[in-house]
Amino acid sequence: MAEIAFIGLGNMGGGMASNLVKAGHRVRAFDLNPAAVAHLATKGAHPTGSLAEAVSGADAVVTMLPAGQHVRKVYTGEDGVLAHASAKAVLMDCSTIDVESAADVGKIATVQGFAFVDAPVSGGMAAADAGTLTFMVGGPEAAFAKAEPFLGDMGKAVIRAGDAGAGQAAKICNNMLLAIHMIGTCEAMNMAIRLGLDPQNFFDIASKASGQNWSLTSYCPVPGIVPAAPSNRDYQPGFAAPMMLKDLMLAMEAARTADAHTPLGAHAAEIYQRFVDMGGDRLDFSGVIKMIAGENLV
Ligand code: NAD
Known about the structure:
By secondary structure, this protein is α/β, with parallel strands linked by helices. It folds into 2 domains: 3-162, Rossmann fold (3-Layer(aba) Sandwich); 169-292, N-(1-d-carboxylethyl)-l-norvaline Dehydrogenase, domain 2, CATH 1.10.1040. The protein has helices spanning 11-22, 34-41, 51-55, 68-76, 81-84, 99-111, 125-130, 141-152, 166-194, 199-206, 214-217, 241-258, 263-277, 288-292; strands at residues 3-7, 26-30, 46-47, 60-63, 90-93, 115-118, 121-122, 133-138, 155-162.
């Protein structure tokens, strides 16, 4: 059993912190939103009133925050994690943020003697609640070894991608690929329907042919085929379209920095920007099939 500070108890962090409680740890919960802290207390976590109170003396710190600026502030700010954590603590940032912020915070923490990893996740709220996330981890090997057992309590796979920032790099490459194959799946499904094919029949064929991919077989954008897919609940998220757009923007920023040629990634970002602007902002990212099919979004 370890003392773990968990900062950021939103859609994802709430489930992840609950799984650390279930694994037998003593979880100190902190969020700027007191309702989120109170909710975690009902799951067996110990509520705290400040970042300093949560972090001081803890064996491990997990953060699950919206974006790079929040992570920079929470770790390196005057009253932040690095100012209050004990030297033995392992620090894990599981947020999805830009590679540069992740690498910067990782380097600052490592120079100060902390074991720090960036450990973004794949899998949405359902996987966070079920403890079946996949973690992609960046940081020194020794820090990874310290973080792995805690991340394992919240996920089904924990894979080191390289040094500081590498977890975020793997995450945005993965999500750029996801966006591209989701759009491709939507275009193929929509065209199949317009050509007079039965969508279930086309699914049966493509899922056993070379068009097979995760967006088709696990998250089918056409309703009535994959029961757990958001298409069956009017595209309620799931993985909200603005979140996908955020990840594509991070991917495009990283592609510029790395001088990587990503024309399909850029086109996917344009398509999701249009989808969000047209009213898809409340929908799951698989709802982009409605825009492709020319349906009304609002
Ligand atoms: P969320 O907005 O529901 O939760 C973020 C929480 O952080 C909020 O409760 C907020 O109050 C808290 N917070 C913000 N600043 C804080 C601070 N300074 N101190 C303490 N708490 C603070 O977001 P989410 O959906 O849980 O996503 C969190 C991260 O996980 C994001 O980076 C997102 O991109 C990533 N992610 C989300 C999903 C998903 O499906 N929702 C999937 C994979 C990854």
